[in-house]
Write a structure and sequence with these properties.
Layout lengths: L9 H9 L17 E2 L11 H16 L4 H4 L5 H10 L9 E4 L2 H17 L9 E4 L5 H13 L3 E4 L5 H5 L7 E7 L11 H10 L3 E5 L11 H4 L3 E4 L13 E5 L1 H8 L42 H15 L6 H23 L6 E2 L11 E5 L4 H10 L2 E2 L1 E3 L3 E5 L7 H16 L16
Parallel strand pairs: 1-11, 3-4, 3-5, 5-6, 6-7
Antiparallel strand pairs: 2-8, 7-8, 9-10, 10-13, 12-13
Helix pairs in contact: 1-14, 2-11, 4-11, 5-6, 12-14
Bound molecules: pyridoxal-5'-phosphate (PLP).
Pyridoxal-5'-phosphate binds next to helix 5 and helix 6.
């Protein structure tokens, strides 16, 4: 279907859409008329089914069922049920993923566990370093810094191209955890997860991956990649809605170690009652659940989990059409089409691609740097009905969600960008006013 890339006419884009077997998946979404949405990497589009689904939970399960719905509607199991469905997108088995809390909180939980497990190895005292990269998402660095201080460790930031060398041989002997975001939120660069997880393992360290920009965007196989822990967002490519619950994954061998080690009950530091083996025994003593539920903390957010579950339906609907592999092929083609058209039609406009040209090395976004006016250009584009976003300093960021985007959208978005730039529209002072969320 994507053989005719590169495309240089709108008709060619329309023809690609007509031949696209994934195109009908767009009907699952309530996309506002006339809008081209290139920001599903920040907040996914509302699925048509979500309002009805949430309304049913509110009116029937909450309104009629009231407290009985914890049992009768299975609310109490939602974090695991939704987690299992997310697991299908991650190469994870049932019982390995839980949907709960925010990515930041989940990172806190699993990084604390990873540090504690690393410290228990025979050479644990020598392993005092969390290795990450300087351009990791700030929350990841903030959480890691905080935990490093609590655990008497340090956070070391290593440029991506030097990570493998930092882990190799003697150099890697002081590393406790390699903590990375798989797809960089700014550049879209994707780390080679399997190779770096293997390097961490060879160094005797554990690997922890933030999948905020990967889950639902690229095919993942955490177990085959040899990863140890992962976390990720529900509101981006999983279409779970603003502030949707996040998820965490723990490799089965670590879940087993925790289950078999009563002395590790408090290894997960947020020992709330929902992580207890028997929350409704109301015991004054904490005893961790044997399974992934030990990573829960407080009461599940039922309405938000229902919306996230409806968001997952939109991705799992692609399974009969080839699933994540088919979505990835389309995502690569859409991204390539956007890059080619911007470079062709907006040449000499000061835009510089910051995303790897090799599709294997990027997620589902393209970012362009512009020395001047990046924020204002994005605002002018939004006024023309093309939504991307801006990340300081200077990055115009565009995400491509193959579930609801077509090639004609890409053509039209680039045409709007061309006009904003050629006409200098973005120089209007009203586009300079910076809102709190960019
Ligand atoms: C890589 C990455 N990690 C974490 C987060 C945010 O996590 P939280 O759900 O805690 O706000 C984001 C948000 O954009 C992100 O891009």
């Amino acid at each position: 279907m994507h053989d005719c890339l590169p495309v240089d006419t709108r008709e060619a884009c329309v023809a690609l859409d007509a031949a696209d077997p994934l195109a009908p998946l767009r009907d699952q979404f309530a996309l506002p008329e006339g809008l081209i949405y290139l920001d599903g990497n920040s907040l996914g589009v509302l699925p048509r089914a979500t309002p009805g689904r949430v309304a049913r939970v509110i009116e029937q399960e909450w309104g009629q069922g009231l407290i009985r719905s914890w049992n009768r509607a299975g609310w109490i199991d939602l974090p695991r049920r939704v987690g299992d469905r997310i697991g299908r997108l991650l190469g994870a088995g049932p019982g390995e993923v839980i949907a709960a809390d925010s990515t930041s909180l989940n990172l806190y939980k699993v990084l604390a566990v990873a540090l504690a497990l690393a410290a228990r190895q025979p050479d644990g005292p020598a392993r005092r370093v969390i290795v990450s990269e300087p351009d990791n998402f700030p929350t990841d660095l903030y959480i890691a810094e905080s935990l490093a201080a609590q655990h008497g460790c340090e956070l070391e930031l290593v440029e991506p191209d030097r990570l493998a060398a930092r882990l190799a041989g003697e150099a890697g002997r002081d590393v406790a955890v390699l903590m990375l975001t798989h797809v960089n939120y700014r550049s879209g660069r994707m780390h080679p997860m399997a190779a770096l997880s293997a390097a961490a393992r060879a160094a005797g360290a554990l690997s922890l991956w933030d999948l905020a920009h990967s889950a639902g965007a690229v095919p993942l196989d955490l177990k085959a990649a040899g990863a140890d822990f992962a976390v990720g967002c529900g509101y981006k490519y999983l279409n779970g809605g603003p502030g949707a619950p996040a998820f965490l994954w723990v490799a089965p061998q670590h879940l087993q170690t925790l289950a078999e080690s009563p002395h590790l009950h408090r290894i997960q530091p947020l020992t709330g009652w929902m992580g207890h083996a028997m929350p409704f025994a109301f015991s004054p003593q904490y005893e961790a659940a044997e399974d992934i539920r030990r990573f829960l903390c407080g009461t599940p957010s039922v309405l938000a989990l229902a919306a996230l579950d409806a968001g997952l339906d939109t991705l799992l609907a692609a399974e009969p059409l080839g699933g994540m592999a088919a979505l990835r092929a389309k995502s690569i083609a859409l991204t390539q089409c956007f890059i080619d058209l911007v470079e062709l039609r907006c040449a000499d406009q000061g835009l510089h691609l910051c995303t790897p040209r090799n599709a294997e090395e990027r997620g589902s976004q393209a970012s362009f740097y512009r020395a001047e006016g990046g924020y204002a250009i994005v605002q002018a584009l939004i006024e023309r009905g093309v939504i991307g976003d801006y990340r300081a300093p200077g990055l115009l960021r565009f995400g491509f969600t193959p579930l609801y985007l077509g090639f004609a959208d890409i053509w039209d978005a680039v045409e709007q960008l061309r006009q904003v730039l050629h006409r200098g529209e973005w120089r209007d002072p009203r586009f300079a006013h910076q809102s709190p969320v960019t």
